[in-house]
Design goal:
The complex is a heterodimer of chains A (182) and B (227).
Chain A (H helix, E strand, L loop, with lengths): L1 H7 L9 H7 L4 H15 E4 L4 E7 L3 E4 L2 E15 L4 E13 L2 E3 L2 E9 L4 E3 L2 E2 L2 E4 L4 E7 L21 H17 L1
Parallel strand pairs in A: 1-3, 2-4, 3-4, 4-5, 5-6, 5-7, 6-8, 7-9, 7-10, 8-11, 9-11
Chain B lengths: L2 H17 L6 E3 L2 H10 L5 E4 L5 H11 L2 E4 L2 H10 L6 H8 L7 E7 L7 H14 E12 L10 E9 L2 E8 L10 H7 L4 E7 L4 E7 L15
Parallel strand pairs in B: 2-3, 2-4, 4-5
Antiparallel strand pairs in B: 1-7, 5-9, 6-7, 8-9
Helix pairs in contact in B: 5-6
The chains are: A alpha/beta (182), B alpha/beta (227).
Chain lengths: 182, 227
């Protein structure tokens, strides 16, 4: 064991396999990383503090809003972040919504709504997962529909028997997943 | 230290941070499990929470019941009326406070909000809650049984659900102290025609009560005779 470790141990602080490293990394290493970084920067779009938008906002990339938006925001498959300076008076639809600023309107997310400390939401939330930090303001309702539940199913089986064992198990699993994610 | 110990320690720390201050006392609750059981047969019930918004509670009830939760924090309303010197208008305010339709709520979490109300305000609030509660719906409420000691700094309690059998009580500053405790008979009269289905007096001088609205009478449509 020890001998094998020593065999791969780098000497004089050099990489263990410099030849391999050299062959996989081009000479202009940092320059090759830059396009990726640029792409990531390009994928997260910001709406600055001084920007005011009235109307409908649709997009197909992650968005951070620091300005004011009134109307409707739709980022169905992407993450919407309302920054600490962001003020939204709109219906919001996104994959995930992170609120650090103010939202006045209903928020619908297919994955998660996260109201962070200092964030404020006045409106109804529909999302399978909701996290509200202490220090956050929230007034409205939260609708966390169970997986597989039909929205219109509602009260039809109000007086029926409890949930089947299988669905209870799956809920327990999703509870753990949520707790781990927080 | 074993790896499993490390993981369990991390889980415990995580649970503490989820629940808030780790040193806040955790008290057993008898009635919460029954409240949940009373709603678990319903598909997507609607819950009304009169306490302050607690993220972990929203997650807990959402995942436990798959419900819609409406948060109407009454402590903020009480504070605002105290600050503005408008407590005499609070009963009238409560009559118009809730926009929810009659019979639209399956379960109501009052926590200990009635401890902070005088009789004049408690009556309209109870009337509103009875109005909103759906037939066969349940209401959970806590009532202090001991007179609050004089000179005590006014505090509200944030009830954080640890699990079905335990609640963490976290106090925070209030503008109004707890009022004189209601007697058992007063509570019964306050919520009429709701029926007290469970009642527990805990060692912590807290009376936990679960009330239920009578179910709608079964339809009396005549059964067509079989041919």
């Amino acid at each position: 064991m020890w001998k094998r470790d020593e065999a791969v141990k780098p000497t004089n602080g050099l990489p263990a396999t410099p030849a391999t490293a050299a062959s996989t990394q081009p000479v202009s290493g940092p320059a090759a990383v830059q396009p990726d970084a640029r792409r990531i920067e390009r994928d997260i779009v910001n709406i600055g503090k001084s920007v005011v938008i009235k109307g409908e906002l649709n997009g197909s990339e992650d968005l951070t809003i620091e300005g004011h938006v009134e109307g409707r925001i739709e980022l169905k498959d992407h993450v919407l972040t309302i920054g600490p300076n962001g003020k939204i008076k709109a219906q919001v639809f996104a994959k995930a919504v992170i609120v650090l600023g103010e939202v006045n309107g209903n928020v619908t997310a297919s994955e998660k709504v996260d109201i962070r400390d200092g964030g404020s939401v006045d409106g109804d939330i529909i999302s399978p997962r909701v996290a509200i930090a202490e220090g956050a303001h929230f007034r409205g309702s939260v609708d966390m529909q169970r997986k597989g539940a039909q929205p219109g199913q509602g009260q039809q089986k109000a007086s029926s028997s409890p949930l089947p064992e299988k669905s209870q198990t799956s809920m327990a699993a999703s509870t753990q997943a949520t707790a781990a994610a927080h | 230290m074993a790896l499993s110990d490390l993981f369990s320690r991390r889980r415990k720390e995580h649970a503490e941070s989820e629940a808030g201050a780790p040193d806040a006392p955790v008290h057993p609750t008898k009635v919460l499990a029954r409240f949940i059981a009373g709603l678990s047969a319903r598909s997507q019930p609607v819950l009304l929470d009169l306490g302050p918004v607690v993220g972990s509670n929203v997650s807990f009830f959402g995942e436990e019941l798959g419900c819609k939760i409406i948060v109407e924090d009454l402590s903020k309303d009480i504070d605002r009326h105290v600050r503005d010197g408008l407590l005499d208008q609070f009963p009238a305010f409560l009559m118009k406070r809730f926009p929810q339709e009659s019979g639209s709520i399956d379960g109501i979490l009052c926590w200990d909000v009635f401890d902070y109300l005088d009789k004049k305000s408690a009556t309209p609030l109870a009337n509103q809650l009875v109005r909103m509660l759906r037939p066969d719906g349940v209401l959970l409420a806590f009532f202090g049984t001991a007179e609050p000691p004089p000179g005590l700094k006014p505090e509200y309690t944030r009830h954080i659900v640890v699990d079905k059998l335990n609640l963490q009580h976290r106090s925070y500053a209030a503008a109004r102290a707890k009022q004189r405790p209601l007697k058992n008979r007063d509570i019964q009269l306050l919520f009429e025609p709701l029926r007290i289905v469970e009642q527990f007096l805990l060692k912590t001088n807290l009376r936990e009560i679960l009330l239920r609205k009578a179910p709608e009478p079964a339809s009396t449509a005549p059964v067509s005779p079989s041919v």
